[in-house]
Design a protein that fits this description.
ArsR-like_HTH; 25% strand; Arc Repressor Mutant, subunit A; 5 helices; disordered C terminus; two-stranded antiparallel ribbon; WH_DNA-bd_sf; 36% helix; 4-stranded antiparallel sheet; alpha+beta; ArsR family transcriptional regulator; WH-like_DNA-bd_sf
Length: 125
């Protein structure tokens, strides 16, 4: 069986139950989305922090964050602050993501959380 893989590093745990390979590939095909994903890999970031770090308009960042979240590539949480405003923050939702292209045009998505699951597969389609 011929295959090739793409791996992207990350942090934290996630829920990849609904990860569709087409949605994941579509999200990763966009330069801005990849830059935002890489920024959120280093630390959890708010949309404004992503916009500043990636030099992308805030409205675009919100769309990309939605796409990355829908693809199970980012997790959303709340940043607790002393003030009443608790902004949403985003972090990568995996340690390793592998996309495999097999004979017959089948695409498999595999998420792994090495720190939390000892490297076992959390999702494969």
């Amino acid at each position: 069986m011929n295959s090739s893989s793409l791996s992207v590093g990350g942090v934290a745990a996630h829920n990849s139950q609904n990860a569709d390979p087409g949605v994941v590939l579509s999200a990763l095909s966009d330069d801005d989305s990849r830059r935002i994903l890489a920024a959120c890999d280093e630390q959890a970031m708010t949309a404004q922090e992503c916009a500043d770090a990636c030099d992308v308009p805030l409205s675009t960042v919100y769309r990309k964050l939605g796409t990355l979240s829908d693809a199970s590539l980012l997790e959303e949480s709340r940043r607790i602050q002393a003030a009443n405003h608790h902004p949403r923050e985003y972090s990568t939702s995996f340690d390793t993501l592998s996309l495999s292209l097999a004979a017959g045009s089948d695409v498999a998505v595999e998420f792994r959380n090495v720190a939390t699951d000892g490297g076992s597969t959390t999702e494969e389609r």
